[in-house]
Amino acid sequence: MNKLLLSAIYIYPIKSLGGASVTQSYIEERGLQFDRRWVLIDDQGVFITQRKYPLLSLLQVDVLDNQLKISHKDDPLETISFFIDQQTNQSFAVSIWDDLTMGFEVDPKVSEWFSRYMNFSVRLVKMDQGTKRHVDPKYATQNEIVSFADGYPCLIIGQSSLDQLNEKLNEPVRMDRFRPNFVFTGGEAHVEDTFKDFEMGGIQFFAVKPCARCVLITVNQQTAAKGAEPLKTLSKYRTFNNKIMFGQNLLHQGSGIIRVGMELHIKSTKEKILS
Asked: What is the pTM of this model?
């Protein structure tokens, strides 16, 4: 196998909003620093997602000078920012799929800004450091915790996997459709299916579960337009147990800096679930 090199790192500070490409990031117990530490919820506490509201993709989130800055991709003047440690003492129950966890409202004025954008009442809440949301015990190895991500601290995809998909599409798609944390070069398409555990930057990673994809990947992250692809094409060759798989969910042990250019050192492998 040729070298597998980390080619991109992405964080998504506010769940289901635009992500940011970074050259390095500190990985903590919950995952990459700032990744999905905030989420929008409705009045019932249910998380707001691009699956239902594609216009969320047009809100770009960046971490700048100890602040989160949110700006509209088509209208840079439509923007708001707040300090990373900003939060009220008002807590709210947060429902993410089958999980119930807690979040603290950042600021009512920030929530009002998002409510105007969404045209209905939402709150922006932050996960407090003391909050412990646990990974599905069926896949956890050491009682790991996770942020407001769907289920796991990190997601990895090989560039070769996207390249193979784009060869099958009439119009190629970008990697941002799949919202990975890590992208690497080298290896054949879907070589990440064979990962069992690997080391990168002194951190141990464990590929515990293929990532089942949904309609979110049909949202163009630059325009918010929604279509049938690439889910339709993927369904023809990446379906397993009635789920469409693309990428690998990761658990990890340890903390430290992860940088673009680091090599993935594969420690052990498993059989591919799909060709």
From this structure: 0.97
